[in-house]
Amino acid sequence: MAPYTPQRRPRFFYGWVVVAGGFLNQVLNSGLGYQGFGTFLLHLEREFGWSKAQLAAARSLMQIENGLMGPVEGVLIDKFGPQKIMQGGMFLFGLGLILLSYIQTLWHYYAVFWVVAIGMGFGGYLVTIVAINLWFRRRRTLAFSISTLGLGVGGILVIPLLVWAQQTVGWREAAFASGLATWAIGIPAGFLLKGAPEQYGLKPDGESPNQSENVDIAKPSSSREMGPETHFTLGEALRTPAYWLIGLGHSSSLLVISTVSVHQFAHMEQGMGISPHFAALMVGVMNAINMIGRLSGGILGDRFEKRYLCVVGTLGTGLSMIVFALASSMSGALLYASVYGFFWGLRGPLVESLRADYFGREHYGTIAGTSSLVTMPSSVLSPVFAGYLADVLGNYIAAFLILGIGCALGSTAFLFVRPPKQPHTFQKQ
């Protein structure tokens, strides 16, 4: 039986409900995962005496999981849809946080974060962007940016609450409660991430099924000028320079992002003499400005060349790390929080939207998931590198300068990104 096909554009487009589900997903993953991870670092260092490099290695294990399992996650999302995958991931994410409250040895710590990593891999960023990419095309960047505002909200609301709980009732109790919150919010939110709109007689962006797509293709990186959509397979995408250049540019930003998520609290408290509560306040400011950056990226990305905007966002991310390395006061911390927050937010939705513009929706999960193998080295090695240098030198200054400069230089990769040749070109060759 053929699916029902409405003739008129619906008043309400369900794609925005998918965006809301992705938003809740990002609140949890940011507040209790990516950013929340760093709030436990000094508590574990004081209680167990583990080095910063040993503690940061857990984050590296998470990134190894993301790299190795990313292709599997992408294939499963494309095959079974984002709804079930997100719910399963959120269950494992919450379980890992609960198990964190019981750890006694270093191998317990690593094992727990492997569970957390698997949960965040299946129930995190990838499943969100795949779901939104299925429902949006012309307004894709804006939809990405709105959903990822959850990263900022997680930092603003969840991080201070998490720090307060750790200071008040203890880090173990805070970890246990975090796991329960993940189950209570994350699993129900998964129901909102329905599969492709075509399954429901709809089209991306809420367009009428009869609406023509005969638009001249001039700048595929600008969604206002998109032509008929072309869907690349993974094999076809791998044969394009654009796939590798986007991965390289994204990798350079992860030198900073992966390091900051682990070490920023430790640097503020030990390197700058800032109290835990003020450090949490700075992270809140950073996330508030991050939201401004994401909205800016969403608005600008659907109007201008995304690859140039990616250069700006990645370059600014690298410069923020240099600012952080040289900061020695609360005003310096505020400057870092502002610069990093804005550019981190700006580049986030642009990179994924650029990849989706070039390679289409049909195999996007597989393509985006496999790209994690390209980004894995930088995200795995940078937190451990920073932790090791901090252990040896007694501070993070040298590590942050090196990683910041590396990120700034890597931003130039986006300058060489060009729209890939259409898949039929490969077949002719």
Characteristics of this structure?
disordered N terminus; 429 residues; mainly alpha; single chain; 73% helix; Growth Hormone, Chain: A
Structural description of this entry:
This protein is mainly α and about 425 residues long. The chain has a single domain (about 15-200, about 220-429), classed as Growth Hormone, Chain: A, CATH 1.20.1250. The chain is about 75% helix and about 0% strand. Helix 4 runs antiparallel to helix 5. The radius of gyration is 21 Å and the shape is globular.
Strand and helix layout:
Layout: H1 15-34, H2 41-48, H3 52-80, H4 82-100, H5 106-123, H6 125-135, H7 140-147, H8 149-168, H9 171-190, H10 234-238, H11 241-271, H12 276-301, H13 306-326, H14 330-359, H15 364-370, H16 372-393, H17 397-410, H18 423-428
Helix pairs in contact: 1-6, 1-7, 1-8, 1-9, 3-4, 3-5, 3-15, 3-16, 4-5, 4-6, 4-9, 5-6, 6-7, 6-15, 7-12, 7-14, 8-9, 8-12, 11-13, 11-14, 11-16, 11-17, 12-14, 13-14, 13-17, 16-17
